[in-house]
Specification:
Length: 299
């Protein structure tokens, strides 16, 4: 495999299974930022004592101030908190980028069994659990509200008198004026948050399982590929499945989650994905297992 020099960076080379399944924000934003950062700071030379595992652990502490801001009511402060958490997400890419630079091997691969592999997963898990806990606390302090009525089409009234904001919302809903909206029960909030948390866990386990399977079937240790391996890599079924993993992996879901917090749509996002996310992930895992068996039969 050709080694990449510090000044010869590309987000498209070398092509590996993990690169093909990398989520878009990591692929097209974080990786170029990692390259710029290491070039400007000469990080691998001046900070040679900072190992990738140290970067992984450090990012857990970096996100703590951001998580504290997510507990506050003003939206601007919570948006600042999201920005800090995203810096921690970027550091998750930085540790792998630094490790590949120091190994003079630009190939993005999942090294199952290595210390860095488990350290990265543990730090991902700790960061995700802390974020979910903070969001749960915020929703308990500021519970979302529900009307308890079936939403109907808006109606046109010939005369609209002065009403409170709640009554206006009822009028626009087309229902009877039924009083103020009531908070969502605490038990429902907890269940919804933890349903999303287990969804993140399933996405992480599924993504890593699929990457390990494709690396075993489609990649050789020296970077070469057989004719049959290349045929499978070029197959439409392979590309479709990999693309779906790009948008449903742990990091993609986490980025969507942070975007929802940024735009003050946390509860709406959680309720939208709490069930359908499981359906999509289970279907994708089953389809990938069928694809693995088809590849083995083909070989």
């Amino acid at each position: 495999m050709t080694h990449q020099q510090d000044d010869a960076f590309s987000v498209f080379y070398p092509i590996t299974v993990k690169l093909l399944m990398c989520d878009p924000i990591n692929h097209y934003i974080y990786l170029p930022l990692c390259f710029v950062f290491t070039q400007v700071t000469r990080f691998t030379t001046l900070f040679s004592f900072v190992t990738p595992n140290v970067i992984s652990v450090t990012r857990v502490f970096v996100v703590v101030p951001g998580l504290r801001l997510l507990l506050l009511e003003p939206l601007g402060l919570r948006q600042t908190g999201v920005a800090i958490v995203l810096i921690g997400e970027w550091m998750d890419s930085l540790d792998g980028f630094v490790a590949r630079l120091r190994a003079a091997n630009p190939a993005m691969q999942s090294e199952v069994g290595a210390i860095g592999y488990y350290m990265d997963g543990i730090c991902d898990g700790i960061s995700a659990v802390m974020l979910l806990f903070v969001c749960l606390v915020y929703l308990k302090r500021h519970p979302p509200r529900q009307s308890g009525r079936v939403l109907q089409l808006p109606v046109i009234c010939s005369k609209v008198e002065d009403r409170s904001q709640e009554n206006k919302e009822c009028l626009l809903g087309g229902g009877q004026l039924g009083g103020p909206r009531v908070p969502v029960p605490s038990g429902v909030v907890c269940t919804t948050v933890w349903l999303f948390g287990f969804q993140l866990l399933l996405a992480s386990l599924g993504w890593n399982y699929v990457i390990a399977g494709y690396q075993r079937l489609l990649e050789n240790g020296d970077g070469s590929h057989t004719v049959k391996q290349l045929a499978v890599l070029h197959a439409a079924s392979t590309w479709i499945l990999m693309w779906f993993w790009r948008v449903t992996c742990f990091h993609s879901i986490m980025h969507c989650f942070l975007i929802a917090i940024f735009f003050d749509k946390l509860w709406e996002f959680l309720t939208a994905v709490r069930y359908v996310g499981y359906v999509a992930l289970f279907a994708l895992i089953v389809l990938n297992q069928i694809h693995f068996q088809a590849i083995q039969t083909y070989f």
